[in-house]
Task: structure prediction
Amino acid sequence: MLHILATSLSLYVIVRLILPLRLPLWLKLVLSLLVVLVALKLYFFRMAFGTMMPELPRWLTAATGVLHGSLILLIILCALRDALLLALWMARKALPHVPKLPFSNGEWASGLLALSLLLSAVAVWQALRVPDVRKLSLTLPRLPQALNGLRIVQLSDPHISSGFPRDWVQAVVDKTNALKPDLIVITGDLADGPPVWRSGDLAPLADLRAPLGVFSCTGNHEYYWGYQGWMAKSREQGIRPLENAHVVLETRGQKLVLAGVTDQAAPAFGLPGPDMRRALEGAPRNAARIMLAHRPRLVEQSAQENVDLQLSGHTHGGQLFGVNQIVGWFNDGFLAGTYHAGRTLLYVSPGSGLWTGFPLRLFVPSEITEITLRSGKNG
Result:
């Protein structure tokens, strides 16, 4: 299905930008073939390597990402141009003196191509760089005054892989530890590839330090590459997965419930799906509750279970500003930032990394999220 859509969109670019050019037929055919090849990058990767995300050198991941991304952006820009031309054509029907745009087909093609390549290069750089720290405060009415100021660092969707290798992981670990958080959580999609491929890249995670510990929930990608192996590998790094389970953290003379659920992808692999009731079974009712759930759409279930704060990821913030709302539409309106579901607060991280099959972030930056909890009334 994906390759059919990619082919259809590539044909749109060919018909609207390449065929109108005043070039020899053979050159148009070469350019058209190049567009189709770039559009079908993921399809050819799967055919050649058995996966849409093969183990490529980071520079090659970036280079193919720029080409693939530039075509995606070219499609968007071409559609915007056509919408503008249609609007002007309709305006001239009512007002004949509305001028035409003074650009030839060749000028349109070269201009849009140059812009798409530039934006794609920026987007790949933004996607693969080490994320900055984002600091925010979240108020939980049920949080005891003694826990006011408790700091949590959330890492989400790191997708550790050949695109996000050991050096990148070490830099993220160093930035996280420099914040000296009370608690560190990872909200799914820890890595891509079988655990045996990632051992060296994961090693710096063992250096994560927080007095209350390092915990995680699973994302959909853990299931794609061997769930049980990834749970064992996480524990080897000192990360405790919460699989429909909770822990009671005691600090400053108070209790804090931290729970986590599995991902909605689990049943397709014959494994238990997210079960918040089970995750919180036996948890003290008078303690503040924090839920780790990879997908933000689970927040309604969190609200039913009297959760104070749900931390999620999965969306990557939509990755491309201007079209990212489409991703939000597929995630029940959740994209990135803070939301409310009754008395339950939800924070959706845009991610610390992303899936390198589509390594683009255009003005949707990745982040290491430092959350300071405040006691008191919301809003």
Observations:
- The mean pLDDT is 93.
- The two ends are 45 Å apart (CA to CA).
